[in-house]
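Dear support,

I submitted the protein below through the web form. The confirmation email said the job was done, but the results page showed an empty box. After a refresh the structure appeared. I'm attaching both so you can tell me whether what I see now is the final result or a partial one.
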Amino acid sequence: MDVNEVEGILLEKEKQMDEYIRSERGVVRLCSKSIKEVHKGNLAEAKKLAEEARTKMGELPKLPCRRRHVEQEYAEAIALIAIYEGKEIPGHTGMGVSPEAYLLGLLDCVGEIKRLIVEKLRKGERKEAEAYFVSLEKLYGEVESLHFSSALVPELRRKQDVARMQTEDARSKLIK
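What the results page shows now:
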């Protein structure tokens, strides 16, 4: 039996996975910081952090079982930056992410756009809030009717439901 040899191989794989997860967390933190900078209105810093995340994401090994999560966070950050700038959201190939991660990132971005709307309303900047809402509705309208197996795109249905509730909540805040 070669149980000792198998153990050595698996211990090395475990070590590599641990290193990957640590690196992945660093990329996710950069994406999170980028989103926070958008909310602070510091677009230059948000872009810098997103670019750093893209570089570090490119250095990660291609582990399909883990890659979707980090790409999803990156897609969310890039989509939010585009919305904040009033630009079109780049496609998944332009972002360098998988189609699945792209959709999930866009759906997560809905909540961030809602935060922008609420903040503009709080500051009495209704026109800006309405402009963000137009972007939110356009984004949600593109992804609301997609239906795929959860084996292909995990959490798609749940994220669509959350995005629908966030869109309706943002709408109700604008109506008041």
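Response: this is the final, complete result; the empty box was a page-load delay. The radius of gyration is 19 Å.
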